[in-house]
Amino acid sequence: MRNRPPLARRLVSLMTCVSALTLTGLNAVQAATTGVSSKLSPDLASMMSGTRVSNLTWAQRIDGQLYGRLLVVASSPDDSLAELRQAVVALGGSVYYSSLSVQALAVLMPMSALNTLAARNDVVAITPNRIAKHSGSLVTDTTGASAIGAGATVRGPALNGQGVGIAVLDSGIDWNHRNLKDAAGRTRVAQSIDVVGLNRKFAPYMWQRGVDLSAVTTNLMRKMALGPCQVALTETSPDPYGHGTHVASIAAGAGGYQAPDSTGVAPGALLYDVRVLDEKGMGNTTAVLMGLDWVVLRSQACNIRVVNMSLAADSSDSFLVDPLTRAARSAVAAGIVVVAAAGNAGKDVDGKEVYGSIGSPGSEPSVITVGAANPKG
Fold this sequence. Notes:
- The chain contains 11 helices and 11 strands.
- The protein has helices spanning 7-34, 42-48, 82-90, 114-118, 138-143, 145-151, 195-201, 214-224, 243-252, 285-302, 323-333; strands at 59-62, 65-74, 94-98, 104-110, 123-128, 165-170, 189-194, 270-275, 304-309, 337-341, 368-370.
- The strands form 2 sheets. Strands 7-8-6-9-10-11 form a 6-stranded parallel sheet, with helices on both faces. Strands 1, 2, 3, 4 and 5 form a 5-stranded antiparallel sheet that branches.
- The longest helix has 28 residues, at 7-34.
- It is elongated and about 95 Å long.
């Protein structure tokens, strides 16, 4: 007895056959009732049967005869489709392009000759040369930002973050990345603050006993919070880990130059790079505190309205006393929207689920804490 394929595979095969038979039957009905070849796409067939939709970009009358800009999908042992191209011309049409990746021709054809062309054995299908337009970014579509930014004029221009500063506390931002530039090619990263580098300068003293460096380090942070809001950036490797650039592009990337569109939520905003994580994506509470301090100090002068921290520390302390949650609460009180990650502590080292594992500062009630759920086991 031969081995039979699994039931699921047999069901899929059966459904495929039924679908093919149904489609064949529908095509036969279409051809019989409309006199139009079943190889024509539905919208093209409706035009041929006299129920065409007006204002089609791919159809036009020339000297009183209706022509269409179409794509002819073919199947032929001749990759050059020489005979098919000759047939198109012989029927009063033109060939504009022969695809290199698939057997298809871009043509201009009189509608009256389509049935004749479709009757050829080497023609698989004929479709209109439809409009291809840009699609929204998955990020903006998912968050709803595309609908808001498209034409919200209640309080001015479209809401794309223009004039607003977003501080990103992370591993740095690759300010020279095209995704983070404006239409003129200028970076939208207004300033870069290297808290990691500052702490490394003081690393030899961090284990030294009997000293008080707070006056020095605090004054340095204050000095770092002075001066213009936008400065020329020269760092050649601003984000050696990459995480901060990824986060910044979600917040304010402008990725309309590529497909799929990777534009972020607020592509018109300015970014403030506050590096608190090192080249391995690691940092400490002190560095994050210093970064938050800088943001609060500069928020009014530079209109920093949002701070993002896609990072988390252990939250075993109550949010009432945890230093990061308290610092985040102060930032919120200063009028800054604080966004933080819930953390990656959903499972322990043994793979067991951990509940109530929101990290700090995400455990602070005034913070917008972002997490994720995976119900797929």
